[in-house]
Specification:
The complex is a heterodimer of chains A (about 280) and B (about 400). Chain A is mostly helical and about 280 residues long. Chain A contains 13 helices and no strands. Chain B has about 400 residues and is α/β, with parallel strands linked by helices. Chain B folds into 2 domains: about 20-160 and about 295-350, D-Maltodextrin-Binding Protein, domain 2; about 160-290 and about 370-390, 3-Layer(aba) Sandwich (D-Maltodextrin-Binding Protein, domain 2). Chain B has helices spanning about 20-35, 40-45, 60-70, 80-90, 105-110, 120-130, 170-180, 200-210, 220-235, 245-250, 265-270, 310-315, 320-330, 345, 350-355, 360-365, 380-390; strands spanning about 50-55, 75-80, 100-105, 115-120, 155-160, 160-165, 190-195, 240, 255-260, 275-280, 290-300, 370. In chain B, strands 1, 2, 3, 4, 5, 11 and 12 form a 7-stranded mixed sheet that branches. In chain B, strands 8-7-9-6-10 form a 5-stranded mixed sheet, with helices on both faces. In chain B, strand 1 (about 50-55), helix 3 and strand 2 form a beta-alpha-beta unit. In chain B, helix 8 (about 200-210) packs across helix 9 and helix 9 (about 220-235) runs parallel beside helix 17. Chain B is globular, with a radius of gyration of 20 Å. Classes of the chains: A mainly alpha (about 280), B alpha/beta (about 400). At the A-B interface, helix 3 of A face helix 4, strand 8, helix 10 and helix 17 of B.
Chain lengths: ~280, ~400
Amino acid sequence: MMRARGWLAALPMLTLLAAGFAAPIAIVAVTSLMPPRTFSLTGALALSNYLAAFTEGYWRPLMWSALGALATTAICLVLAWPTANALMRLGGRVATLVAILIALPIFISESVRLFGLSLFLMPGGGILAGTLNELFGIRIGSILNTRLAALIGLVYIHFPFVLFPLMLGLGLVPRDQVEAARDLGASGWQLFREIEAPLAAPGAAIGAMLCFVLALGANAEAAILGGRAVTVATQAIEQRFSYAQDWPQGAALTMLLVLITALVVIPLLRRVDLDRLIGR
Amino acid sequence: MTGTRAQDIAGPGRVRNMGPTRRRVLGGMAAAAGAAALPGTARAQGRPLSLLTWDAYADPRLLDRWRAATGKDIRYEIHISDPTSVNRLRAGETAVWDFININNPWARKILWPEGLIRDLPMERFAPLYDKMFPKFHLPYKWAMSEDGAHLLGVVQRFETFDFVINSDVISPATAKDEGWNLFNNPDFAGRYGILAYEDWNVMDICMGAGIHPFREKTEADFAAFEKTARQWIGDARLITTDFVQLNLAILNGEIDAYFTGGTYSITSARLEGVTNLYAITPNSGPADGKGGINWIELNSAVANPNGDDTILDFLAWICEPEQAYIVATGNGNLQPVSQMAQPEVMAMFSKEQLDALQWDEFEERIANAVEFDIVPDYDRLYDIYSAAMRARG
């Protein structure tokens, strides 16, 4: 009886998920099996689009996206850990103010922020190059329109998505355990490896997962800052859907990206205790 | 324009810079959803005039004047590309849209034969053609059905779209003489950018490979195209869908030129005084001896089963001098319109605007350009092009 009522209560949400989440993915999945450059969902099913994904050079965009997402996640974790620790220790108004300053840009369009960074990095009359030249007579080049610029953009955009879950994770570390370890002579590295890292792992895992998934699907950084020094997966997908008018191939690439995401997210979510992280 | 030229996504004319912003897309979706939600009769009576258009026709001044003049509402969505919009009509959106403006070949070769647009009454619209440049006087090929019996739309904006140089570094005369070979020169590697209006890039690469973009290709042509595509894309300093970024790159000395480009991508900056941004149409090339490409937009009435003659009023109304001027200066951009043949329209343009348009060279540009057409073998060429893009880096 209770079980039936539970299902009944869940029905609206299940319907919403089925219509808004499962159905679109199902349509993309079926489209990916249609003949190339067709617009019907009733053609003969075939795997040719998936085959083409591996024979027509699409591995490069997939590789650049995966590498970019991995590097971004690693760099963000390295930068976020001391930042989160410092904020936790600071506490009070200062910590709140710094956290707000880091969080605020999230509410500004990503493209606007990236164009801002582009103006900063621009050679000649760019903010950095122009200022150095004007004030100190120093002439510098620019990393704009390179892979490095795209990576910096990825880190800049996704850093808050790692920082805040990590702060939640570090909040789970009992301060008395840290102090006890210190009293017993633990080094900073031992403290990190044996106390902080294991206890804050759920927060770090959630932050890393968020960052990886968002960076995997990002293309504005490679477009605006990278000058398309590389083609990322979502750019390749967009090309198939738009200029190429090849929806089935675009759908197959989309499904491959969904698969990569699922391979990362599902095992991770199974290991993380979300209830504990949010304090329930 | 421009087939591809909005970033804001067509054989001819796919993504143009002013591409679909989120607001524009949502506005269009709202219009479409709203229209779809109404019963047939109510739709015909109360629906706004719906434009599937390039950005110039979405200029607030034009929309406000229409509302003030007629009391009727107007909605729009910016194209992603010519082919994308054609496919939308094919998919049944003729019931949503009243107006479509895309590049010249589509109406005659696709939209009319497939019953996606309606013809215009000759007695009402022929006089409008008499007031355009002589090139467009009826029977103008691209405005007519293949059998010459039906008028398929009204010509308005037209221009060439080839490449842009920094005239402080490269002399315009040299660039015009060199034409597309400029980008074939290995010494120019890393000194140019690409505006990723990708169907236009495909046509330009054809020109650079010595192939007529609008003729059937041989296997040797495909090989030449691939060689040129790999070189041009591999050697480009930056590739972007944002022409402002390319203009800035020229100003900062990062690059000396970019393709695809033209007055469409530089007039705003030239109006601000950056006159070393200079549109080039080559003096010669492989397209019947020409190297430039001249796009001509045709404004047509969609064969909307719920539509009425309001669209005919709109098509005639935008040809009036005041409206033609707004279209020519729409959304901050300057582009020539066919009505500039009328002294009354020309008088509305300031000297600065005409200088920004490089108006003194306009006739020369048009004379050196082949008229835009559907690219045969486009799918195969595009696949070669996009593979070269993926191989970059």
